[in-house]
Description:
By secondary structure, chain A is of the alpha/beta class.
Amino acid sequence: MAALAEKVLTRHVGLxxxxxxxxxxxxxxxxxxxxxxxxxxxxxxxSVKASGLRGRGGAGFPTGVKxxxxxxETSKPKYLVVNADESEPGTFKDRLLMERDPHLCLExxxxxxxxxxxxxxxxxxRGEFVAGWRTLGRAIEQAREAGLIGRDVLGSGWDIDVIxxxxxxxxxxxxxxxxxxxxxxxxxxPRLKPPFPATFGVYGNPTTINNVETLAVVPAIVERGAxxxxxxxxxxxxxxxxxxxxxxxxxxxxxxxxxxxxxxxLFGELGxxxxxxxxxxxxxxxxxxxxxxxxxGECGDxxxxxDGLAAKGSMLGSAGIMMMDDSVCMVRxxxxxxxFYAHESCGQCTPCRVGSDWIHRIVARIERGEGTTGDLExxxxxxxxxxxxxxxxxxxxxxxxxxxxxxxxxHEFNDHISRKACPFGAARG
Amino acid sequence: MSxxxxxxxxxxxxxxxxxxxxxxxxxxxxxxxxxxxALLPALWLAQQEQGYCSTEAQEQIAARIGVxxxxxxxxxxxxxxxxxxxxxxxxxxxxxxxxxxxxxxxxLVRHIEGRLGIKAGQTTxxxxxxxxxxxxxxxxxxxxxxxxxxxxHEDLTPETxxxxxxxxx
Lengths: 429, 169
Ligand SMILES: Cc1cc2nc3c(=O)[nH]c(=O)nc-3n(C[C@H](O)[C@H](O)[C@H](O)COP(=O)(O)O)c2cc1C
Ligand code: SF4
Ligand code: FES
């Protein structure tokens, strides 16, 4: 396990003038774009492939491999879509990059668009991120004026347009095909796959979609080389990574470190340990609320990377890590998680539309002390009816966490049912 | 993000969009390879002018983009940030999702409710504030927090919340 020697993604986020092109350029912004444009696009793809970079949006799919899915011989325009919808509960890393280092984001987007020979890069940013939308919008205008966006970028003969598109409040639009529908001016309904975006994306044209953080790290790979990147972290889980710490932790925030940092180092050293030193850590949601919950006991030797979390039955997801201490009622916590999914289901698939609402109502009822024996079995069987039966994985993202709470904290659910009340009383909301 | 659509129940003023907004909508249309992509941007422009997306504005947008008014209405209702009726001058959206909840968002909501004399989902009789609870706003490390109009307000306490509400006339 190799540590990260210096910050890569967050190197400049503390600087007040970093959103200004001149200041950013003085610190080296767009030098790597120049370098990339002087090589063949395929060289960038190869480099990203060799680096082992896996997507930072949630699924951890190898980025370079995804890029090779784009058709080579095609008369259709190709697009890059930047997923800046960041709506997974517990996640706030892309927002930091867009607000504080928009030119790093843009440079990554441009280099990646070049690698894909895309003619348009669409940035889909969630509607609530007004500050990031304005900052990125200004950065795009500055870059356009400087000839970094538009016709014949820096004399390369390559034309690229960048279109910043603002969402309007809908979690599901973070799902890649829902996002594309929304971008086309429709309701954000996920599409049936296949066809996949690489063959049938925005307007039916070949499209690659990546997360903001995924693209923002591409300049470092091109600049320092795939080997450097692959040397950080461990095999198949490489590179620098942003972690979002929230909940019962003393110093919540975004931390950049190597992928696969052990949980105790992340929570204890970077996060400063528990918020209330008299309390003990009880549970951790390790990858946004769609990730199955972990007990504190399971986190002792946990490596915070894709494979480390998958080995323990959870996932790194969006790296939104929520800490809960022993004051938390896990039934109430699950109620809060499931309320989100009950609200956000797009409603296209019956198991998801009905199931998300149903499991939320069961858990809310148990929490109020109105649960009955049999409720937990019903809950689990409704969850089983949701997994793997829908157009997108949203339904799984609601059902699997629910099952994990019940499996790992069953006694708390049973306590609520037998006492006909929440044993935690009104503690913490 | 799903949150209840709220608004004081005035009949939406029967007013179309200004020439300036229509011009900006045409600019948005010109930016995209396919006209319909400008629907969300157009609705944003309408809401910026009117405070919500009136039926008249939706009809004008439909005509410009080349879809039916019913189609536009269907899109509007999918997204929680578009209002279809006038709302308070300041819409206070308090996040109550997991990380904010762990940091006291429910107490904060109760505090604001007491302070404004309304429940979440309602608008003050003077039309000054609309209070809503919403899902994660991507600000979980600075919880609890709320969004008012374009701005995020983070690391809130009852005291800082009170001061904030004071400043909003
Ligand atoms: C319900 C749902 C919500 C999602 N939300 C986001 C999101 O907000 N941001 C994001 O980057 N990816 C999100 N994803 C993942 C995207 O579908 C897609 O996999 C990702 O943008 C690909 O980028 P990457 O390969 O760089 O990780 C979501 C997926 C699902 C199923
Ligand atoms: S699984 Fe749920 S969110 Fe996904 S398409 Fe079906 S109904 Fe919509
Ligand atoms: S949980 Fe409130 S901003 Fe994310």
